[in-house]
Amino acid sequence: MRRFLLSYTYSVFKNTLRLLVKKLFVNLMSLLILLPSLTLIAAPVPTGYGFIPIQEEMQIAQPVTATHGMVSSQEALASKVGLDILKQGGNAVDAAVAVTLPRADNLAGGGFMIIHLQDGNKNIAINYREKLQQKHLVICF
Description:
Blueprint: H1 2-42, H2 54-61, H3 76-87, H4 92-98, E1 112-117, E2 122-127, H5 134-140
Antiparallel strand pairs: 1-2
């Protein structure tokens, strides 16, 4: 009988210990998973950089207006060339040809264009997408 009681006590102790270890492991894992998210919640928000209010962004933008035409490009020199084209009597298409940037989606890179001609109040739509040879279609697409 004594042997049975010792065996039973050992079995109960072993099962209880196993459950306690399992619970401790689950609690520790939960803590390890949640701890990083808790530190993110408590982290201070940086004040000196990263967040620019809309008002300040609009003040930085310095919008420009024009009444007779405008040229905008990636390079200041190209914009100046386009502006010179307009001053010499050229139209927006002439200026666009002058400021072409081949690696971009513009006249040399391909795209779509709508041109309004004042003579006759006429609109023209041009599709100048890139054309590939048949052998390149398999490689590119």
